[in-house]
Design goal:
The protein is α+β, with helices and mostly antiparallel strands and 415 residues long. Helices cover 53% and strands 20% of the residues. The chain has helices at 4-12, 21-62, 78-86, 120-123, 152-158, 198-203, 209-215, 235-245, 255-258, 260-285, 287-298, 300-308, 313-357, 378-395, 397-404, 408-412; strands spanning 66-70, 91-106, 109-118, 133-135, 147-151, 165-176, 179-193, 204-208, 224-229, 250-254.
């Protein structure tokens, strides 16, 4: 297969004569089929990588790396625990919070949301919310002044901005002579943040931890401590170590537990999509079989003459494997080039299509993010290219074997 003559004849067969234009067309179709399949696989994997990267970034910018709470769902001695965590390796910072579900009312609009009571000075140690502020600052939350920071989507829905008033209705109740009534408190909007994820921007609000303690009757307790670690990906191992240390006093969980189902679903979806698109590559690669069989049928006389001149069956097989390999190689290279270019530019292309046709492919109210991201990973590119080329190579074996079985005496009997 690696003799110069075999290469020369195999490459020569890639150029069709006038009477074999149809074979040339089928060959071109095989090349384009492989190229399109490889392009599609690289692009889809890049888009899925982009989704995972963007969602993880935005989700984890608001989610703590780990959380420590008491065995009964609250912490009474968080100051001592916070000081103890400062001496623990891999822990960069911690912050207390009080959380609960409430209804927020503004004018005639009501929205159910999750309220988190925070300490502004501590919160910057464990989350990036301070960098997500569109209006106001975290320091505008002052104990006793009952200020609130809303997500942008929630503020737009309620029709409020900085300086406006909203009413928080807590599931806690007060007993009065008139009966049982829900706890309500008037808050002033002091800031608006935007994470970029509809789930947080629409369904999350921040208040000072002292105001939250009064609202939810937590007194001197907090719901839990958020922890920031030096290695996000190593959080499960660090959390396991913390759990052993505090097994009798506290409950410890990490971000992988809170979002495990989501990331497992993304991983499974990526695997299934890769298999489906790889089948497309396989179908395109095995088009080479029909192409080579047509070439073998057309070149039977040539094969017979070459055999009578001393060319072995193995060499004949090598000629057609070279031909099929060239088709697969060109298709793979073309697919990689197109796939890489498309994966790099897919956000701009989608944005241009949305503006041109006035459509929106990703509705923020339905999907976690509203733009189509893409992250090209060269490992996926090389794996896709290698698999496409391998399938193309395997597809050449049967037609090449059929060519090697040609009997010169039978073919040249009527020539």
């Amino acid at each position: 297969m690696f003799k110069p003559l075999i290469f020369y004849i195999g490459l020569r067969y890639t150029r069709a004569k006038r009477r074999t234009q149809f074979i040339s067309f089928v060959t071109l179709a095989s090349v384009l089929g492989i190229a399109l399949s490889v392009t599609a696989l690289i692009t889809v994997l890049s888009v899925m990588n982009g989704f995972v990267d963007k969602i993880s970034e935005r989700m984890l910018s608001m989610t703590s790396h780990a959380t420590i709470t008491g065995l009964y769902g609250q912490l009474d001695d968080w100051h001592a625990l916070e000081q103890q965590l400062k001496t623990y390796p891999h822990v960069l910072g911690s912050a207390p919070f009080v959380t609960g579900q409430v209804m927020i009312n503004a004018d005639r609009r009501v929205n159910g949301t999750m309220v988190s009571g925070i300490l502004p000075d501590y919160e910057s140690k464990v989350s990036e919310i301070a960098d997500k502020m569109k209006l106001g600052q975290l320091s505008d939350l002052v104990a006793g002044e009952y200020g609130i920071i809303l997500g942008l989507e929630q503020a737009n829905y309620l029709g409020v901005t900085v300086g406006d008033k909203v009413t928080i209705i807590s599931p806690q109740v007060n007993s009065t002579p008139a009966g049982v009534v829900p706890r309500m408190r008037r808050f002033s909007v002091v800031g608006i943040f935007q994470v970029g994820m509809y789930e947080y921007d629409r369904n999350m609000a921040l208040i000072h931890i002292d105001d939250a303690a009064k609202l939810f009757r937590m007194e001197n307790s907090v719901s839990a401590l958020r922890i920031k670690m030096d290695d996000l990906l190593n959080a499960p191992q660090i959390t396991a170590s913390l759990a052993k240390t505090f097994a009798d006093k506290y409950s410890v969980s990490d971000w992988t537990m809170a979002h495990d189902n989501f990331f497992q679903a993304i991983k499974m979806e990526k695997k299934v999509m890769s298999i489906i698109l790889l089948l497309m590559v396989a179908v395109s690669a095995f088009n080479i079989v029909s192409t080579l069989i047509m070439v073998v049928t057309d070149k039977r006389s040539d094969i017979a003459i070459l055999k009578t001149q001393g060319l072995t069956s193995a060499s004949v097989m090598g000629i057609f494997m070279v031909l099929g390999t060239v088709i697969g190689l060109f298709g793979t290279i073309l697919g990689v080039i197109c796939g890489v270019l498309l994966a790099i530019n897919v956000p701009e292309l989608v944005s241009a299509i949305e503006q041109l046709f006035h459509v929106k492919f990703l509705n923020a109210q339905v999907y976690y993010i509203s733009e189509l991201p893409s992250k090209l990973m060269w490992g996926d590119v090389w794996a896709t290219a290698g698999m496409a080329f391998l399938l193309s190579l395997l597809a050449t074996i049967y037609p090449a074997w059929q060519a090697a079985k040609v009997n010169p005496a039978e073919v040249l009997r009527y020539e």
